Amino acid sequence: MYADNFIQIYVTFAGFLFGAAIGSFLNVVIWRLPQGESIVFPGSHCPQCGNAISWYDNIPLLSWVFLGAKCRHCRGQISLRYPMVELVSAIFLAGYLNRFGIAAGVVWYLFTAALIVVTMIDLDHKIIPDEISLPGIPIGLLINMFVLSDNWKDGLIDGGLGALLGGGLLLAIALGYYALTKTEGMGLGDPKLLGMIGAFVGWKGVIFTILVSSLVGTLIGALFIALTGKSRKFQIPFGPFLALGAVTWVWLGPAAVRWYFGY
Predict the structure, then answer these.
(1) Who has greater pLDDT, 113 or 75?
(2) How far is CA 260 from CA 162, 246, 255, in A?
(3) By the number of CB atoms within 10 A of the CB, which of 41, 195, 227, 252 ranks highest?
């Protein structure tokens, strides 16, 4: 028993460290992908002065503190976003490994990591990169078939229905809104993202994701408009709310469905 507890603590701690390191890479993807830059070359560099960042100035979480949130070379401000993404990434990987074990934990972490990137890019640029959502659909379907489901046929049906329902439903809403108003109420990136989410979480997860994201999005949108005085036509990215709904499903959704239907 003690050995099992020790292993679990060790895996969780290692997950936190690896998650922070991967979070540093996620920051690179968030910055470079919308710019059309390679996420591999060149190495890490300050976006303000262009100087290369030494390894000792690129330690996740710690370097931001030691440098006083400023670049060593130009003294330009380093956004709090960088350590926050690293911390969120670390917490998620540690949490998933602790909750779901190594195989499913790694899968759900990678899924969440993709959603973190999508969320930050959508907030910054109001776009959801196809480079993440489109490959994510077949990848999610394969993972559903061979990792998350008891047998591949169940995974194929569940993931396939989830992808079709997610992508098709939002696409119908987006096209219907445009046909009625001649204005774009939702970009085509959202249906692609929900298609990817559906491939991972299945059709029940898609319905749950839509309900949660719509509810939270409506509340946050109404609060934002009330506080800022923005017009109701002001565009608020929907991708972050879809990501929130999907992650909520991973942690709470199946248990919530069993409780609601009493099985």
Answers:
(1) 113
(2) 20, 18, 9
(3) 195
Residue labelled with tokens 């709470």: 252
Give the C-alpha separation, 91 to 80, whole Å. Answer: 17
Distance CA 74, CA 83 (A): 19
**Would you call 219 exposed, middle or buried from its count of C-beta atoms within 10 A (0-12, 13-18, 19+)?**
exposed
- Write down the pLDDT at residue 261: 73
pLDDT in tens, 182-203: 666 677 899 999 999 999 999 9
Alpha-carbon gap, residue 15 to 116, rounded angstroms: 17
Q: Which of 247, 149, 236 is nearest to 197 (CA)?
A: 247
Three state DSSP letters for 94-156 = HHHHHHHCHHHHHHHHHHHHHHHHHHHHHHHHCCCCHHHHHHHHHHHHHHHHHHHCCCHHHHH
pLDDT in tens, 244-253: 999 999 999 9
Q: Where are the domains of the chain?
A: 1-100, 129-263
Q: What is the largest CA-CA distance in the chain?
A: 64
